[in-house]
Design brief:
alpha+beta; 3 helices
Length: about 120
């Protein structure tokens, strides 16, 4: 059931450290003060860069790095917690806690909670 899943887009430099099973925390603008726990369920390792519009022009390769986004599918640890979210409620923040970034996790967790509480000022 995909009603308890959130999609997030990451750049190529960040995606290389994200693994299936990594813990995530999510903040929703419509739920100020709340932080939802979850984990990475899937990583969609594809991008739209292979798609081109039909034209009479050959593609030009510049040698510049790929700027595409990669999709991470996160699922809630507690699916019942997602039940009261409005349909298509977008997470305003989704933090992935990777093995590589362990020394910074505490800073990220504090910052995430501060932003969750400041959502009281900006929530609809």
């Amino acid at each position: 059931d995909e009603t308890e899943m959130v999609l997030a887009a990451f750049g190529q430099s960040a995606i290389r450290y994200i693994e299936v099973g990594d813990p995530v925390e999510m903040v929703f603008r419509t739920q100020p003060g709340e932080v939802y726990a979850g984990k990475v369920a899937r990583i969609v390792r594809s991008s739209g860069s292979a798609q081109m519009a039909a034209s009479g022009q050959l593609p030009q390769f510049t040698g510049q790095p790929e700027n595409s986004r990669w999709i991470v599918v996160a699922e809630f640890d507690d699916p019942a917690a997602a039940a009261h979210l409005p349909q298509s409620a977008g997470a305003s923040i989704l933090a992935v806690y990777t093995e590589k970034g362990k020394p910074l996790h505490v800073i990220s967790k504090v910052t995430l909670r501060m932003k969750a509480w400041t959502a009281y000022l900006t929530s609809p």
